[in-house]
């Protein structure tokens, strides 16, 4: 199958959506499919052979963050050229409602279109205001996927229609096989995320750290991600700043080793999350997870059965839970075992098969599917009728 995938956000600045698209493309290629990904990127950026640049992105405030998007006449021309050259059996657009390549592709594409909605933002006035502009494009979509129940709810409330929930995928074995790094072991708390994006929650963790260190002074906080390191620790007493180690941006291999090494992985995110891919990666690596009780995080952690939850933005609750976990090896081992079992449902072997089922149902390839099975798939995935 010839599959075209549209990434709305810049390939130069990795994030959860880009990682999902990259891993999906890799999975499909390993299965023998012909895949091309269209993404914003600087023309001189080294790209995987299956990624086509749609030109440089510009930063735009979006869903509580700053997204690097691509829109305009040059982008539209590149979209049309990519569609013409690709002759795809199916187009898979991610975040078609964002002001980026997905919307341009919706307008220009002919044939089956599958869309994945990642955003969870129940208070999105912009999405409501833009509905009349989006409607004509969204009506061309043959099938809709949401990465979580909360992304599905945002879609239903603001754009209408429905979607099947297929979560983000993870190569579980890649993380499970990683070898710990000794220098990252021993009374360590881990955090991965953009340091200077408040909704990722590092300021909450920094407020909790003095109380953690008061109970367990040997604890270290390891932080991986880009941002202003000096600003991140300025709220800490001077004598405690040495207990925080910044690792900067780390490779996928080191991320897996990081998650295999830490005693507790903390996700203190404060909002705007529709899934929580880092939680799945941490569980895959066997890290006990402590996360804020966002609805999306609670769902990923099986309502607290596969990881512990604390009250969102409550630094005292975070500190108390972290101290308790650091001092209880038996509880940490229990969380490792539960997380490792729970996470298998997010492996690409399952997630990829579900996405392919959607592709097959909206393309001419459904001739290979019996009529009654096709009807069942359409009911399951909430697809448009022929």
UniProtKB/TrEMBL annotation:
Keywords: Glycosyltransferase, Transferase. The keyword Transferase applies. Residues 14-173 form the Glycosyltransferase subfamily 4-like N-terminal domain. Gene3D superfamilies: Glycogen Phosphorylase B. GO terms for biological process: carbohydrate derivative biosynthetic process. GO terms for molecular function: hexosyltransferase activity. SUPFAM superfamilies: UDP-Glycosyltransferase/glycogen phosphorylase (SSF53756). The keyword Cytoplasm does not apply. InterPro entries: Glyco_trans_4-like_N (IPR028098), Glycosyltransferase_grp1 (IPR050194). It comes from the Bacteria. CDD domains: GT4_PimA-like. This is Glycosyltransferase family 4 protein.
